[in-house]
Amino acid sequence: QVQLVESGGGLVQPGGSLRLSCATSGFTFRDFAMRWYRQAPGKEREFVAHIGPDGVNAIYEDSVKGRFTISRDNRKAAVFLQMNNLTPEDTAVYYCRAAMTEWWGQGTQVTVSS
């Protein structure tokens, strides 16, 4: 059974940082690119970041470039999203996904507010 479980969300002040984790099981993690998405209230779910199976290729949505870093640990079958210099516009539920599949996590809430 495929499982993706996000963690690490929370409430943070503007300018702060959070590190999201996505623990996976039930599939051969190292064979899949992984992605983070987010969905803000009243908005469509949007792409945030992508990382290739070997961890070399990373792609970011324009508004997070230079602030967010995606990484992965193939030994632990986990993907991470380091988020720095957060702004209220980053407030959303963040989801991880195995690329090109319908395997999604349940999401973790990130709220950026003073």
User: Segments where pLDDT lies below 50 for 5+ residues?
Assistant: none
Helix content: under 10%
Q: Tally of extended strands? A: 10
Integer-rounded radius of gyration:
13 Å
User: Total helix count?
Assistant: 0
Q: What is the rounded distance between the termini?
A: 40 Å
Strand pairing plus helix content: what structural class?
A: mainly beta
Shape: globular
Structure description:
The protein contains no helices and ten strands. It is an all-beta fold. The chain has a six-stranded mixed β-sheet, with no helix packed on it. A four-stranded antiparallel β-sheet has the order 1-3-8-7, with no helix packed on it. The chain is globular. The protein starts with a strand and ends with a strand. The mean pLDDT is 97.
What layout of secondary structure does this protein have?
Blueprint (H helix, E strand, L loop, with lengths): L2 E5 L2 E3 L5 E8 L8 E6 L6 E6 L6 E3 L7 E6 L4 E6 L8 E7 L9 E5 L2
Parallel strand pairs: 2-10
Antiparallel strand pairs: 1-3, 3-8, 4-5, 4-9, 5-6, 7-8, 9-10
List keywords for this structure.
six-stranded mixed sheet; 0% helix; four-stranded antiparallel sheet; globular; 114 residues; mainly beta
